[in-house]
Amino acid sequence: MEEVDVEPTTTPIPGFDSNQKHLGFVWGPGDILVYETIYKASGGSAGGCPFVHEVRKDEDIYSPILRKLFNESHHIFVGLQRIREDLPMYHVSSLELIWNLCEVLFIDAAPAGSLVLHLLDWVRLHKADVDEKAREVLASESPAEHQAYWDVVISYVLQGRMDEARQVLVKQAALQPAARVMFKLLDNLLMKMPIFNPGETQTLTEFDVKWRHWREEVDHCLQDQSFASNRHLEDICKILVGDEDVLLEYKELLSTWYHFLVTRLLFSHPTVKPTELHYYAQVLTTTLYMIQKPLDSILLAAFEFDIHQVIKDCSIALNNWWFVGHLTDLLDHCKLLQSHNLHFGSNLREFLLLEYASGLFTHHSLWQLAVDYFDHCPEFGRVYLELQIERVPLDTERKALKVIRICEQRQMTEQVRSICKIMAKKALRNNRLGSALSWSIRAKDAAFATLISERFLQDYCAKGTFSDLDLIDNLGPAMLLSDRLTFLGKYREFHRLYGEKRFSDAAKLLLSLMTAKIAPHSFWMTLLTDALPLLEQKEVIFSADQTHELMFCLEELTSGKSVPTPDRPMQVLGYTPPYPLSNVCFPFNLLIHCFIICSNLYSCLARG
Amino acid sequence: MFVARSIAADHKDLIHDVSYDFHGRRMATCSSDQSVKVWDKSDNGEWNCTASWKTHSGSVWRVTWAHPEFGQVLASCSFDRTAAVWEEIVGESNDKQRGLSHWIKRTTLVDSRTSVTDVKFAPKHMGLMLTTCSADGVMRVYEAPDVMNLSQWSLQQEISSKLSCSCISWSPSSSRAHAPMIAVGSDDSNTAYSGKVHIYEYIENTRKYAKAENLMTVTDPVHDIAFAPNLGRSFHVLAIATKDVRIFKLIPLRKESAVGSSGPTKLQVQILAQFDNHNSQVWRVSWNISSTLLASSGDDGCVRLWKANYMDNWKCTAILRGDGSPVAGSSSQAAVPSTAGGPQHVLLQASSAGRKKAQLIPG
């Protein structure tokens, strides 16, 4: 079968002339920006450039109706991956038509006998105008005289809705008491029309016999000229025996070739087998109707049970990947699709689902639905998800955490790291050190954690206080991420211990920060200065050994290295020096330290 | 497709490049007016210009964003023979209230002796790295060894070819299966040298880029080049803008081993598609984020979108074309979008909230 070819649509871009300028572009999330430009290397001035235009697809995920559809279908999709569910009706008419037909033919797979009835149902679903017209007619003053009266009756007959046809016919019968017998006869024939009932024990053959018998009866009436006086009644009779010429006369009422097809089958071959369908469809389309719209080819392909052709035509003709993706998925589930081998090994279903889900990803809230679709694409779903989930804008911490959770659930560690890093960078840029630190910890980014810890320490030196105490106090094992971070945590702990007057614990910690080389050398001066108030305490806090170590540290510090003076105020430790240390120059500062340490040492020694 | 919104770009001369940031919430435009503008998208979809500054002393050809892991960083390249790296500094509080930000220059790359025609950042897994190419045929690879210090960039490698270069594309694959690759296109009309696309691969041993392939079938000047997102494939897909649109498949021919490989991977080159619908020179090609669509722009003033179906048959699915109405008035547009408006257009008013479609009065 020839491939359906659809011409590409042309979208006009306002305010510029294709003959004079080029159209520059850049892809965005879900749209494409275009602007006028000139692609020549000379770059001469060519006048101002007014506009950049945002161009989007028409049918869209921005439509609230479609959004609802997407949400519903997502729900179904996810359920379908587990169990098959009854599919609700969709309100987009062509898609519905195709979908329902596929259901009838492929999913329900009705056998001969039921097939025609299912097809009748399908036709009725999509010809709601008949009921509307009927309502109008019946509501009128004199229904039998309404100009659409006979249209309604005949339409009902064409749809195999004999009961309704009879009900409407009664109105006419009432108007023509003289023709009572004739109307009764037709009413009888309509009532007796055999309808295959799959539930009964009647076999197809038995039904066929019954049906032929009835048909002969109707034909007999026709030959008898029983309805000769009323053209309409005679037409109905002729329809009942499947008279094609009469059917053709009512082409307008049938309106489509597939209605014609089903009606014809009802009255000529009600026991048609699925495998015979395409023959009748072909004959119809080649002799009576012209296949014009892509929709027609798709339906025809369905009647031919050519599933792949259906999907192929759908994917070309329909711009909406939702439909094709879901249809394919549905058929795949019923094991009706055989995978084509694509060059990268994926199958058609996955290809379409990937397309569909990618389209959803650009929407600010629908992207979460897309995640489930990617999850169910075993071959490429993960890599597509990895690529696209990184692009979700991290507008708020909450949103970032949501994205991270999705990544963590799928062990997408690189994406988690990347998102955390981006958030850390953003926080740092906005001077939110606590947030930056917690994001770097989450990103397990040691280098960045070091950088931020440095900033904390610098801030402390400048202001004398720590910010984000809660965070630093509760680092826990995360402290071990980087040396500088460990130091920050421990240094803060020292301050806490001092504040709680647990001086010997504080002293031990302070010392270990230097001896265990946790503290950077640049900070040692500060630490030694922190030791001063401890040394000044009345009770001895530093033991002899500890004091030795303190001296040793001091020596190490002063041996040829230039160390910055501590300039942070001492008030934080509750120590008010009798002399302003900051005014004292470097070597003298150190001398004081030495003196205090030594005096402590001597007092230790003195006490033994 | 339809035009959802029109933004008064307000450059005083032609725009040469527009670039979205990684998350699609910011955009940068650069122009022959020597400036770069940065735009931020608000929650209701409106674009606001948050920065506008002079970046070069010549036309600015391209502008591109670094990955947000490195912060808010832009690179630009210009006719003035330089490329520059810019970083956004969070401004003073009153600036913030006015919605403005400042960008400062972190470095100027002055090695080129001719117009720098393209600048592109490497994929983030390679660190903070970028490549420039120049009209005299030199491609340069730079790296900032300390990602926290954007002022320090070192020139890693210079590769000279005899052909003027117009465009660069990095292979986006972060898979360990692929060594980093750069494709460079040449718009040189010199027919003595055929093969206007060179592909370079990073060799672990030498820590340098070596030429892996020269696409000999591309003999006409190349104006743009773009690797498609890799998506777990074992091969690469490369789109080229030349006298037509071409899509190549590059298949690595032997398994690469990171250690011990002394030369670049052999690549088998196949052509996947070729379109001459533009009927003229094609100037730009670019893939959308999920690599399901390729867009091209040509001398015919159109942008065309291309798509492959599941059998890998490519088709043009949409065309964007100027509607023929002339450019609105002179370039003296008002600075603030809400008051601008040429005779042919009504712009989206900046103050009207929630409106997503621009109302356009036909000319």
Automatic annotation (TrEMBL), chain A:
Keyword Membrane on entry: yes
Function: Functions as a component of the nuclear pore complex (NPC).
Pfam families: Nucleopor_Nup85
InterPro entries xref list: Nucleoporin_Nup85 (IPR011502)
Compartments where found: Nucleus, Nuclear pore complex
One of the record's GO molecular function terms: structural constituent of nuclear pore
This protein's GO CC annotations: nuclear membrane; nuclear pore outer ring
This protein's name: Nuclear pore complex protein Nup85
A GO biological-process term: protein import into nucleus
Assembly and interaction partners: Component of the nuclear pore complex (NPC).
Protein family (similarity comment): Belongs to the nucleoporin Nup85 family.
Main location class: nucleus
Keyword entries, A-Z: Membrane, mRNA transport, Nuclear pore complex, Nucleus, Protein transport, Translocation, Transport
TrEMBL record, chain B:
Localization: Chromosome, Centromere, Kinetochore; Lysosome membrane; Nucleus, Nuclear pore complex
Entry GO terms, CC: kinetochore; lysosomal membrane; nuclear pore outer ring; Seh1-associated complex
Keyword Ligase among UniProt keywords: no
A Gene Ontology molecular function term of the record: structural molecule activity
Protein name: Nucleoporin SEH1
Superkingdom to which the source organism belongs: Eukaryota
Family statement drawn from the similarity comment of this UniProt entry: Belongs to the WD repeat SEC13 family.
Designated gene of the protein: SEH1L
Keywords noted in UniProt: Cell cycle, Cell division, Centromere, Chromosome partition, Kinetochore, Lysosome, Mitosis, mRNA transport, Nuclear pore complex, Nucleus, Protein transport, Repeat, Translocation, Transport, WD repeat
Provenance organism: Oncorhynchus tshawytscha (Chinook salmon)
Record's function text: Component of the Nup107-160 subcomplex of the nuclear pore complex (NPC). The Nup107-160 subcomplex is required for the assembly of a functional NPC. The Nup107-160 subcomplex is also required for normal kinetochore microtubule attachment, mitotic progression and chromosome segregation. This subunit plays a role in recruitment of the Nup107-160 subcomplex to the kinetochore.
SMART domains: WD40 (SM00320)
Cross-referenced InterPro entries: Sec13/Seh1_fam, WD40/YVTN_repeat-like_dom_sf, WD40_PAC1, WD40_repeat_dom_sf, WD40_rpt
GO aspect biological process, one term: positive regulation of TORC1 signaling
Any single Pfam family the record assigns to this protein: WD40
WD repeat extents: 8-40, 275-307
SUPFAM superfamilies in alphabetical order: WD40 repeat-like
Presence of the UniProt keyword DNA repair in the record: no
PROSITE patterns reported in the protein's UniProt record: WD_REPEATS_2 (PS50082), WD_REPEATS_REGION (PS50294)
